[in-house]
Amino acid sequence: MDLLRFITAGSVDDGKSTLIGRLLYDSKNILIDQLEALEKSTKNRTDGSVDLALLTDGLRAEREQGITIDVAYRYFSTPKRKFIIADAPGHVQYTRNMITGASNASLIIILIDARQGVVEQTRRHSIIASLLRIKHVVVAVNKMDLVDFSQDVFNNIVIDYNHVAERLGLKNITYIPMSALDGDNIVDKSARIPWFSGKPLLEYLEEVQIDQDVNLTDPRFQVQVVIRPQTEALHDYRGYAGKVISGVYKKGDKVTVLPQGIQTSITSVETGGEEVAEVFAPQSAVLQLADDIDISRGDTIVKTDNQPRVNNELEVLLCWMDDKPLISGNKYLLQHNSRLVRAMIRQVDYKIDVNTLEHQPVEGQVKLNEVVKAVIKTAVPVVYDPYDVFSEYGSAILVDETSNSTVAAVLIQN
Amino acid sequence: MNHSYQLNYLEQLEAESIHIFREVAGQFEKPALLFSGGKDSITLVHLARKAFAPGKIPFPLVHIDTGHNFPEALNFRDNLVAELDATLVVRKVEDTIRQRHLTEPKGKFPSRNWLQTYTLLDTIEEFGFDCCIGGARRDEEKARAKERIFSVRDEFGQWNPKLQRPELWSIYNGRIHKGENVRVFPISNWTELDIWNYIRKENIPLPSIYFAHERQVIEHEGQLVAISDYVQPDETDVVLTKKVRYRTVGDMTCTAAVESQAATLEEVINEIVATRISERGETRIDDKVTEAAMEDRKKNGYF
Q: Does B101 map to a domain?
């Protein structure tokens, strides 16, 4: 049994929360007392029906206003797979929350209201999916009951969305007509949509192939902590603990420590204190090396014959996430996994309109939820791969060192 | 490509949790692991041990002791600490009540759960802990589902759900100002069943109260509460002897038992798979009060 993380994008009006509620409910992942609590809170509403959307709206303000403010994580499993849903709000003012939820997802469900077709919000969500290189896309054409389950309506939406996807370079797209409110094509195949020959949503989620998504060819390992027990028995033990971000490591591998550029070899690979034959992504492991080198947190250990880039000037896309605007020339901290370096935003080239993908000149300051192309200069070199090639090692955050807030998502381009 | 290069879901969750533990060790000066003696914190300790092996766990275990413990859980705690050669810090809610002239909760099920927050904040200040690692899971409750893995608390320990830092990829920003504190939840993405399956996979020992045993209980609003020094029957109660187990281990005053015949891990897991009631709903007497009970407690400095 494996694990699939996905994000649902859409607003309450598209039936996103209802869709999630339906997935949990029909796959029997909602329990009696949770349902009772749901019925209790539904009684305070006017229309009387059980609102599945309430299952996902956790905070009081969200329940009161009937909106989703923050990313909520939901868990369910079937005999085939465990699922983690990042339930993210869809409106433009919550773009940062959607990016947060999308950053860990390998699949996105984009909801389209069958009556509305492809709208601005659909484009924005698709652009975010494409910026973040989400590997699988499900276009859920919802509320089919309100268009009499019309095959023509569905087909037209497919044609429209295909144009959007083509322009954005989105791949692996699956279209499913459904009614989340009534459960059509969610868990069971809908008898009301006989012309649709594809799988219902849950079946698709259970079967979509994700084992190719992990990069096993370009080994990257970043040191989080150095383990030195300094006990009698382990007097000279020095292990480098970190996550195998990608690739495979084993004893005897010739490796280079970056950014120092020092070569050595692996003498032991371990997990949980025991030596193993090899370690691979995304395991957490400990490596021991042949030579005594000065290695600290944030340094990268790679195979000598497959090296990433090392640079102190980075072309990046920044998704700005702070209420305070970006001030060109201000100093920030760039956190690239476990590596923290001082950084300065040297120039901002253009803004990307998240509704149209058009490049626009930046007038004034870069504000919350804006995506810009910029150049960052770092105090010491950063070891990375371009995000488009390899997202796990091309992503970082910017931290404002006066407020300590995470102010931007960074996608390294060059 | 060799198809053996694949982690199952438990191995993936384990890898993520170990990564989080190591980020704590790498980012904080003085972290502590909040240990309650329950299965979630026992799992946390197991993960911490794996994260830093062959070294020791590089931070103390902290028990905020309400004084309403199951004796079995305390014994288990002491044995575990001895086996790990770990540092244990115990701070008692009773002492806080006395020193701060707090009002001891009354009633038949006097829960000190809420008062733990005072003791926790005092302990954080006493030791200067900049990070407290907890065993909360997002599947437990609706407010928890929205909390970050690295959750920044202000100097009053308060959670502000509207001012959470975006948490992107697996990059954790634990930078804080002096006086602030970060709560870190390494098993955020685990469900109750994941914990049980992992306990079985890793063969992790648990206190005996997690398995079916005979106990004298009274029935309170459909829940079974054990008779103990802290909970005494009154004249209207019928004292029953039942075969029960605990699904969570909290205070004796606010944790209910479930009727069960499950004597082994396998049997416990089978019962949990079959149950149609959530963990908190079945076992916590203190959570049903208001829909936003947990949100309110967290905003006030609770775990």
A: yes
Q: Do A224 and B146 touch (CB under 8 A)?
A: no
- B145 and A283: CB-CB below 8 Å? no
Which of A145, A172, A207 is the C-terminal boundary of a domain?
A207
Mutate to test the interface with B, among A24, A210, A227 (most CBs of B within 10 A): A227
Q: Check CB contact under 8 Å for A284 and B18.
A: yes
* Cα gap A408→A399, rounded to integer Å: 7
| Burial of A144: CB neighbours in 10 Å, binned 0-12, 13-18, 19+ | buried
Regarding whether A98 and A15 lie in a shared domain, the answer is yes
Compute the mean pLDDT over every residue in chain B, rounded to the nearest whole number. 86
- When pLDDT is cut at 50, 70 and 90, the band that residue A191 belongs to is very high
The three-state (H, E, C) secondary structure of A57-102, written as one string = CCCHHHHHHCCCCCCEEEEEECCCEEEEEEECCCCHHHHHHHHHHH
Residues of A in contact with B143 (CB under 8 A): 58-59
- Determine the structural domain holding residue B138 and report its residue range: 9-193+292-299
User: Looking at chain A from residue 174 to 213, which residues have their Cβ under 8 Å from any Cβ of chain B?
Assistant: 211
User: From the CB of residue B264, how many other CB atoms can be counted at a distance below 10 Å?
Assistant: 11
Q: Are A280 and A264 in contact (CB under 8 A)?
A: no
Q: Total domain count for chain A?
A: 3
Residues 6+ apart with CB under 8 A from A400: A322, A324, A332, A333, A407
ipTM rounded to 2 decimals: 0.92
Which helix (H) or strand (E) covers residue B26, if one does?
helix B9-27
Instruction: Point out the residue among A84, A225, A271 whose CB comes nearest to the CB of B22.
Output: A225
In A, which residues are within 8 Å of B169 by CB distance?
Answer: 103-104, 392, 395
pLDDT reading at A260 higher than 60: yes
